[in-house]
Amino acid sequence: MHRLEIRNIMTELVIRFCTHSVNPANPSVLIIAAHPDDEVIGAGGRFKYIKKASFVHVTDGAPKNLSDAYSCGFKTRKGYAQARKKELHSALGLVNIRPEQCIEVGLVDQEASFDLVSLSNTLAGIIKSLRPEIVLTLAYEGGHPDHDASAFGAHAACRLLELEGIVPPLLVEYTSYFSSGAKMAVSEFLPHNTESISVVLSEEERLLKRRMVECFSTQQKILGVFPLEFEKFRPAPLYDFTMPPHAGRLFYENFEWGMTGERWRSLSQEALHSLGIEGMI
Ligand SMILES: [Zn+2]
Fold first, then answer.
1. All domains of the chain, ordered by start, with CATH?
2. Of residues 19 and 75, which shows the higher confidence score?
3. How many Cβ atoms from other residues are within 10 Å of residue 5's Cβ?
4. 3 C-alpha vs ligand 1 centroid, how far in Å?
5. pLDDT in tens, 106-160
């Protein structure tokens, strides 16, 4: 098939996902999030239109470093993780998504990059069992190492399925955050060769999304910077995970999270080798 034709078909599928009003065959969608709240921030306005939605959370949202937990009044990592799970279920409950529709990979917040091989295999297994038509995933953008690990896992899982002769689902990205000079860019994508589609939320959709966001009581300080007026999606571009997502300092390199871009790429290189998919993504 001609490259342009493939691109048109992919864009058409993304439009099908985004535009509920012209959605005769509501596709089944698997949403991959690194942390409880990523999914609502990036795509919460779409959830009530998806007839068959499943969610995978790569981490439990609670880092080993307890400073976030303490500042929210929790004494243990477990307590903080449980609170974040409860917030997620409350937010998704507003659009009638049940806890049984959420799968937990169970990695520790900030540590997903150390488990790229098992994460990729786990995601491949989940996709194989659920057979979604669309997988909604985070982008590779250096915002948070867990986000990049989730993007890696989603792409690697698709390549693993291809090796088994299984046609992978369409990977569609939702937005999060990344470094743009000295600022944090939110709800945007780094430039790539795939077109993004912006969905303007109606007044009713914005109110609903606001209520969903408000369920994440422990994250309110951070979540206020994300706009509620629109959501952006695009077919996931092909990434070279051994290269930096952009020039200059990555957003997560501003924090003491024990991860640099260089270290992340070395973990990614090792994982690609172990998975036998070097040069395929
Ligand atoms: Zn996140």
1. 3-272 (3.40.50.10320)
2. 75
3. 9
4. 33
5. 999 999 999 999 999 999 999 999 999 999 999 999 999 999 999 999 999 999 9
Give the C-alpha distances (Å, rounded to integers) separating 130 from 29, 65, 158, 188: 9, 34, 13, 29
Rounded CA separation 247/249 (Å):
7
pLDDT over 90 (residue 78): yes
Give the Å distance between the CA of 147 and the centre of ligand 1.
Answer: 6
Helix (H/G/I), strand (E/B), else coil: 70: helix
Three-state DSSP state, 139 = coil
Q: With beta carbons less than 8 A apart as the criterion, state whether 93 and 47 touch.
A: no
pLDDT number for residue 22: 43
Cα of 143 from ligand 1 centre, angstroms: 9
7: CA distance to ligand 1 center in Å?
A: 28
Percent of the chain scoring above 70 in pLDDT: 91
173, two tokens: 């990205």
Q: Quote the strand ranges of 102-249, DSSP E.
A: 102-109, 134-137, 170-174, 177-180, 183-186, 197-200, 230-235
For residues 208 and 96, the answer to whether their CB atoms sit within 8 Å is no
Amino acid at residue number 136: L
Using the mean position of ligand 1's atoms as its centre, give its distance from the Cα of residue 16 in Å.
Answer: 26
pLDDT-based confidence at 228, cuts 50/70/90?
very high
| Span between the terminal Cα atoms of the chain, in Å | 20
Give residue 194's pLDDT band: very low, low, confident or very high (50, 70, 90): confident
Q: Residue 37 and residue 42: Cα distance in Å, rounded? A: 9
* Whether the model pTM is above 0.70: yes
